[in-house]
């Protein structure tokens, strides 16, 4: 549908027009022409090297992943035994710890690389850092902590403080190893325990292990020629260098007043920090490969009147309402009503306005495309209305489906390009040519700068050991890297045959939703149920049966075909392995349960209600 042949172009136009008429849409655009424009924009960004266009942070850049936020901790190695180890201290690990505490598990150990809890919110302290999903649903355990966020979209310090509050409430500070990295993990068949080694010489034995390492934890750099040659200052946004820029996450970057700054990348992080760089730099050069979709944020302080009206259970209701809305389901009311739900809210409203509307499956897909075109036309019109220079405004218009890349929401980003000291260098989908001693080269022109900020994201790979940095050795000395060499293999995303009492939390063949903490909370509750069942029934170990695992992988692969077709038409990015769908390591969204999070959470709930641990082998 995205690239109709000349012969079929009129047919597609007719189909779009017919669906639009049924839905009562007045089209102010040519959908077939837009589809062709999207294809052209995607094709010129396709690269043979795919994800190889990025490089690991090593060598002279190794300090980019050091911890600038905490003094080094000195301690003796541990040689102890606990009931459960949780690897990772972000929201996933915190939720796992909280739910296990509620289930009565007292003997816990959390292993975390950072100097405190927080995960991504510990590392990402760049100016303007803020959640882009409403804080009233993004921050978990709000009712349990009796806390209401101060704003609709919380800034990083408040989110970090909330992670610390969770840790305090559930006594997780008592059992954490900060500034510690796992170096290996091995199953002891005789004792039915996991033996975990760390970079501090620890040797911890545990009955259960919950892996919550997080999907985006290793920063990456562009593999640009000459990157080592630059003589100025450099850093990655995930380790913002305030000793150089001055200021804090709130801005006030006074150290940049006499500095020419380049930022490479215009994704979600860059959208938030560029307004601060533009305000304080002597001159800012923004190097863009693909523009972000930037919608209105409309942040505001929390209304005391709204807060007083909240009833017990409000948080769960609001979280679930959002999840249904962003997966295309109908709700009587859109509780959140933001840019994430806008497309689907409009479709739902059209269904309500046309109760007799009957659409075939193809027509429903076309209606979704039309709603997406309509929304993205609004996004492009917003850029044109805000950015004063027509050429710059045009370069900032995204030509792809809204969810091909993570949508962004900001009320100062586009306005920054009206500053006389800010220059957008649009690379027309190619990226920069090279880096020199003095600056950045593109299209034969050298942009001399004092500092380069890399807003180039994180390593995304389906290879578990690539993300975690270590291997897991299961039954019969089988490495997880070997078992998963040709793709993830789990049952319900939690367990893998041959790896008893080992549970995976995060994005391993699970139900991804835009609100990551909702998914993590569902997983943590499921984890607590399974471990409680094992502890209460004199069970030594559980693992996925081969048959259950095979069936789940079959479901994943079958349903992934539809998602693959969608992302194959998307502009390259980390969502679709830089456009290389079907190759090894299919990117951030690889292997997700194609039935969607609502159905996935229902499957888990019904499995728990059945109570038989169906699909698990029990020792």
Q: What does it look like?
A:
By secondary structure, this protein is α/β, with parallel strands linked by helices. 36% of the residues lie in helices and 15% in strands. It contains 20 helices and 22 strands. The strands form six sheets. Strands 2, 3, 4, 5, 6, 7, 19 and 20 form an eight-stranded mixed β-sheet that branches. It has a five-stranded parallel β-sheet with strand order 9-18-10-11-14, with helices on one face. The protein has a three-stranded antiparallel β-sheet with strand order 15-16-17, with no helix packed on it. A hairpin with a 3-residue loop joins strand 15 and strand 16 (439-442). Helix 1 (6-23) packs across helix 13 and helix 3 packs parallel to helix 7. It is globular, with a radius of gyration of 25 Å. The termini are far apart. The relative contact order is 0.14. The model has no long low-confidence stretch (mean pLDDT 90).
Count of helix runs: 20
Helix content: 25-40%
Radius of gyration: 25 Å
What is the typical, i.e. mean, pLDDT? 90
Short description:
The chain is of the alpha/beta class and 619 residues long.
Throw out a few tags for this protein.
619 residues, alpha/beta, 8-stranded mixed beta sheet, 5-stranded parallel beta sheet, 20 helices, 22 strands, globular
Topology of helices and strands:
Layout: H1 6-23, H2 31-43, E1 54-56, E2 81-87, H3 91-102, E3 108-111, H4 120-123, H5 135-138, H6 142-145, H7 156-169, E4 176-177, E5 182-188, E6 193-198, E7 203-211, E8 220-222, E9 233-236, H8 242-245, E10 260-264, H9 268-280, E11 283-288, E12 294-295, H10 304-309, H11 314-326, H12 342-353, H13 361-386, H14 390-395, E13 408-409, H15 413-416, E14 422-426, E15 434-435, E16 439-442, E17 445-448, E18 451-454, H16 464-468, E19 472-473, H17 480-483, E20 502-504, H18 516-536, E21 542-544, H19 546-568, H20 597-610, E22 616-618
Helix pairs in contact: 1-13, 3-7, 3-18, 12-13, 18-20
